[in-house]
Amino acid sequence: MVLNEDYSPIIPIHDYLRYLENKNYSPNTIKAYARNLKLYWEFLESREIDWTQITVLKLSEFIHWLKTSNNKVINLQYLTGSRTEKTINHILKTVRLLYEFQSRLGVVAPLDVYQTKRINKSKLKYKSLLHHTQTGMIKMNILKLKEPRTFPGCLSKDEVFQLIDGCKNIRDKFLICLLHESGMRIGEVLGLRHEDIRSKGVNEIHVVKRENNANRARAKTGDRIIDVSKELMRMYSTYLVNEYPKADSDYVFVNCWKEPLGEAMSKSNVDNLFTRLANKTGVKAHPHLLRHTHATELIRANWDMAHVQKRLGHSDVQTTINTYVHLTDDDLAQKYKEYLDNRK
């Protein structure tokens, strides 16, 4: 909830966030949208702008405000923007969606931030099944900043092994191995129940989207099945036999040594684990970096992009391509070596 100075809810934001809740948006997504809209309202108040009278010019001023404002007292020196283009685009998208929602209610006029542009369809990086039926005219958001393509990074095999060896118990080792081998999101992992792990005749993990997890973990997309190795399943069995507490719990990852025993692990528990591992091993990592590492390994192993998309749970293959297809110098060198070997 976003509040005014008198601690009353800001009604346009309140109504929009409740709408997202009713549509079963992830709590983390709603929280991010709330933070974005809080920044927007701070800008409006600093410029004494009525939110119903916004224009494209004023939104461009908001972009400048986001680039130069870090909400702190600073020296009067040249300041490099603390927000990336990707972050600013996400904030602008949230603002645009707020106005789309309010315009459907008849409160404000819709924001006109698009222009129509003709494109050369033959130069598209990804062509949909029905791309030949398209007119070649697309809508472009004139306020969207160009985002530099950056490699999100991945861990080497040695670094993954260091993280695993740095764990003091089987539960944490299993957590690291599961994140690395499956490419699951941390919300999906923390929401796992024992019934989701199938080891009789198969080695499968079923990702199930649930709304009632005690630790507020959520699967971002729909249900899917992920195949894993027998070794990972053996580690799961070892964890159950040697460390899992005698508690009535359906969750896979729980408190094993601290009260309340059997309570589902939270995201903060996992963050603390990675902080301890960084101090111990020198490897700075986070759960999503293991997901990037898994995806990068699949792509380097020449997996079809559609298969990578399905395994990661992306709704659109273009998301997989934009996020994970990054060629490094080592990748290029390896491909050239293969080319030379095949030419002989």
List the helices and strands and how they pair.
Blueprint: H1 11-22, H2 27-47, H3 56-68, H4 85-104, E1 114-118, E2 137-141, H5 157-166, H6 170-182, H7 186-190, E3 197-198, E4 204-207, E5 224-227, H8 230-242, H9 267-281, H10 287-300, H11 305-312, H12 317-324, H13 329-343
Antiparallel strand pairs: 1-2, 3-4, 4-5
Explain what the structure shows.
The chain has 344 residues and is mostly helical. It has 13 helices and five strands. Strand 3 and strand 4 form a beta hairpin. Helix 1 packs antiparallel against helix 2, helix 2 (27-47) packs across helix 4 (85-104) and helix 6 packs across helix 10 (287-300). The longest helix has 21 residues, at 27-47. It is globular. The relative contact order is 0.08.
* Radius of gyration of CA atoms, rounded to a whole number: 24 Å
Classification by helices and strands? mainly alpha
Count every beta strand, where a strand is a DSSP E run of 2 or more residues. 5
The residue ranges in which pLDDT falls below 50 over 5 or more consecutive positions are 72-80
Which bin fits the share of residues in helices? 40-55%
What's the arrangement of strands in the largest beta sheet? 3-4-5
Give the overall average pLDDT.
Answer: 86
CATH superfamily of the largest domain: Intergrase catalytic core
- Secondary-structure element pattern, one letter each: HHHHEEHHHEEEHHHHHH
Report the sheet with the most strands, covering strand number, pairing sense and barrel closure: 3 strands, antiparallel
CATH class of the largest domain: Mainly Alpha
Assembly type of the chains comes to: single chain
